[in-house]
């Protein structure tokens, strides 16, 4: 399944992305990637989900999408508004959401505020937004202000893409070389002396503010759709974040071996596909239900 390049205008900015499958497919999956990743992170997973239209956008500031305006920031609630507007622009009135990491946090909030439009939610290696305790609010904002005061650094320029691939394999969430190549293919831009990362440097800044755990709970408890949470044993879930699973009314939980990007690694991709396809069968997506009946 070769993807089609997608570009839409949302709130005065261009959002780029990839679209897999037929536009007239009976089921549409709307996907959001993780922090510092891009839509290419779904390049292995999307073709394995047969009979669906799969849309993955580069979040603002990522991949080939526009950066936010000077003076703006990258708060999770702004991402929610961006993707809500993208659903309107794409005229998607019935969608299944699939998010990885940061994307899972964003889409969990979108599912909570759109109970009729959103039919299901898959959270892959993600359990909602990052949080702060109320008493930490001042310190959190202070860190952001201090970051803004620092002089801007000239972006690093790489003469060879291979060096960028190697750098990406050793990121905060390490990935294999093949996965890194996918991310680099959409996450760099050509400059006079070589290449540089295309993401907005402000993505590395501390958040001005974060939600509290109680606020996250208020969203999770309003998610009425079926939810699949797929976690890897080498991923980011903690005993504290796992407590959020109790707030999801219609939860299916699968746990697999692997790291934080199991949908991008050949050794773990099958397990992710099996988890998602099995979930879709249980909620009655026809193409997956029919396959299960043929196998019986």
UniProtKB/TrEMBL annotation:
Keyword Cytoplasm appears in the UniProt entry: no
InterPro entries the UniProt entry points to: AB_hydrolase_1 (IPR000073), AB_hydrolase_fold (IPR029058), AB_hydrolase_sf (IPR050266)
Tree of life domain: Bacteria
Ranges where the AB hydrolase-1 domain occurs: 32-266
Keywords on record: Hydrolase
GO cellular component terms, A-Z: membrane
Keyword rRNA-binding listed: no
Pfam families: Abhydrolase_1
Any one GO MF annotation of this record: hydrolase activity
Matches recorded under PANTHER family: MONOACYLGLYCEROL LIPASE, SERINE HYDROLASE-LIKE PROTEIN DDB_G0286239
Family as reported in the entry's similarity comment: Belongs to the AB hydrolase superfamily.
Protein name: Epoxide hydrolase. Serine peptidase. MEROPS family S33
């Amino acid at each position: 399944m070769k993807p089609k390049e997608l570009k839409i205008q949302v709130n005065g900015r261009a959002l780029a992305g990839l679209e897999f499958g037929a536009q007239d497919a009976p089921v549409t999956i709307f996907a959001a990637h993780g922090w510092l990743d891009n839509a290419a992170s779904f390049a292995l997973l999307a073709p394995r989900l047969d009979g669906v239209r799969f849309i993955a956008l580069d979040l603002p500031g990522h991949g080939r999408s526009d950066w936010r305006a000077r003076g703006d920031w990258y708060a999770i609630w702004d991402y929610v508004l961006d993707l809500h507007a993208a659903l309107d622009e794409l005229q998607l009135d019935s969608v299944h959401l699939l998010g990885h990491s940061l994307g899972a946090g964003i889409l969990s909030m979108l599912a909570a505020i759109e109970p009729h439009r959103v039919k299901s939610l898959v959270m892959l290696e993600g359990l909602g937004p990052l949080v702060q305790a109320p008493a930490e609010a001042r310190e959190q904002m202070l860190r952001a202000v201090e970051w803004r005061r620092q002089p801007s650094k000239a972006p690093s320029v790489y003469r060879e893409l291979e060096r960028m691939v190697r750098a990406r394999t050793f990121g905060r969430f390490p990935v294999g070389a093949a996965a890194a190549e996918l991310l680099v293919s959409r996450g760099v831009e050509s400059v006079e002396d070589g290449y540089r990362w295309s993401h907005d440097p402000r993505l590395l800044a501390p958040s001005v503010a974060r939600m509290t755990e109680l606020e996250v709970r208020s969203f999770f408890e309003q998610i009425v759709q079926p939810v699949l949470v797929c976690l890897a044993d080498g991923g980011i879930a903690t005993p504290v974040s796992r407590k959020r699973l109790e707030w999801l009314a219609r939860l299916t939980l699968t746990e697999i071996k692997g790291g934080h990007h199991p949908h991008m690694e050949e050794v773990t991709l099958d397990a992710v596909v099996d988890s998602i396809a099995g979930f879709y069968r249980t909620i009655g997506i026809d193409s997956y239900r029919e396959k299960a009946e043929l196998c019986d």
